[in-house]
Amino acid sequence: MASSNDHLVQSDDPNHPANLIPSLCAKFWHLGWVTGTGGGCSIRDDDLVYLAPSGVQKELMKSSDLYVMSLAAQSASLFKRQRIYLREPKGLKPSQCTPLFLAAFTKRRAGCCIHTHSQWAVLVTLLLESQNKNVFEISHMEQIKGIGKGFEKSGNLGYHDTLRIPVIENTAHEEDLTEFLEEAMDEYPDTYAVLVRRHGVYVWGENVHKAKTQCESLDYLFQLAVEMKKLGLPWIRSPELVNLQAQYK
Ligand SMILES: CSC[C@@H](O)[C@@H](O)C(=O)COP(=O)(O)O
Ligand SMILES: [Zn+2]
């Protein structure tokens, strides 16, 4: 089966998922999102899901290293943990993030899901841990407008909206995060991301462009939040300040 379906990862089109995953991961490595083999990215093109191998240097991946599966065949399988691949590269194992990426594809019909080990995301989860909180909230920041309003909703959040990103606790094995990620999606149906304590973040979007720009906007906001905390500035603008602004309108 493996070699017969090599055509699934062979294309001259730079926007083909099999070419995009390696090129995106190479870019993400420079941002510190996928260093030391951590993190990754998966793309769904209609029923086909493209996945990276596990434990490889994600910035050095080639299209021939990728796994391909049918999403429908996956959901139809009686044995959810048994995965059927249309294409499997030799001598590699599929990413441990696979069930988490599949959750974004099946529960939110995402076209792309990115997992980063960004230190900004990790630091935000640590700051929230010290406050006993399991949701990141920030308001009145222009970059919030880079995040969509939610699943099956059109348009993006506005400047006056509060962005909320749930946090789940880390587990010893990546795949054990799946049930908690799914629970967070149910509790926050409009979220496009879930932070993982002391680990990183999963971000998705309806297509590659949206997943990438939302991940960039969130990383920007996580970094900003860490710097604000250092300066003693609150993440939610206080009502007093809102009143003060209204006074001088
Ligand atoms: C530095 S090891 C990180 C892994 O355990 C995991 O968290 C991860 O993000 C990547 O898993 P992988 O199976 O290599 O795709
Ligand atoms: Zn990870």
Structure description:
The protein has 249 residues and is an alpha+beta fold. The chain has 7 helices and 9 strands. The chain has one domain (3-238): Class II aldolase/adducin N-terminal domain (L-fuculose-1-phosphate Aldolase). It has helices spanning 17-30, 71-76, 98-108, 119-130, 178-187, 208-230, 239-247, and strands at residues 40-45, 48-51, 67-70, 85-87, 112-116, 135-139, 162-168, 193-196, 200-205. Strands 4-3-2-1-5-9-8-7-6 form a 9-stranded mixed β-sheet, sandwiched between helices. The radius of gyration is 19 Å and the shape is elongated. The model has no long low-confidence stretch (mean pLDDT 94). It binds 5-S-methyl-1-O-phosphono-5-thio-D-ribulose and zinc ion. 5-S-methyl-1-O-phosphono-5-thio-D-ribulose (MRU) is lined by residues 36-40, 52, 54-55, 95-97, 115, 174.
